[in-house]
């Protein structure tokens, strides 16, 4: 199984350890992992701001870098959702259409494609799981609490088997953190208040770490935590799962 590792630009620039953890984890799970060196931003920030017509270069570059892989795996639900919904190319639309079906968020790939529900890692801390909006509502990685339906969570399913990890049950487990990509810039005050509320829920449950599948959300929460001098830290789920031998 030949995997193209799709690393978001902000992860590459600010949180390279998340990319490394994803690479190492996929290798441990038996995948043949490749990192295309020419990859750049997928174009999501422009599309979110109403400039999707300017993402043609990003789309063409994505296709050039990731064509030929069996699957494309990314540790970011928001970037995956953008590619699934918006990857197009006037000259290579058939190729783009097929690639959209091959792009998967990390925990989605592990549970749905590799069919793995148990990872023998070790992380002896109390952890709160932040379900990002794009992952939950766009990729259906977990059930939405407003629906009268059985709860499921692909990320939590993997975390439950990590030795020593105490996964808390939050009061409002699928509430938005307020990041929202460019929303945090255009509506800074609202974004920060939403982030503070999200953090308060975790702090009320005395967590040591907040984890999640989107480093963008965790980056937003991390900034607020540091400004509040909180003892709570953030960690991407890939870094926890990569504690497996």
Automatic annotation (TrEMBL):
Record-level Gene Ontology MF annotations: oxidoreductase activity
Top-rank taxon, per record: Bacteria
Any one GO cellular component localisation term in the record: cytosol
Domain Cysteine-rich: 4-83, 127-221
UniProt xrefs under PANTHER family: LACTATE UTILIZATION PROTEIN A (PTHR30296:SF0), UNCHARACTERIZED PROTEIN YKGE (PTHR30296)
Pfam family, one: CCG
InterPro entries: Cys_rich_dom
Species per Swiss-Prot/TrEMBL record: Flavobacterium resistens
Listed name of the protein: (Fe-S)-binding protein
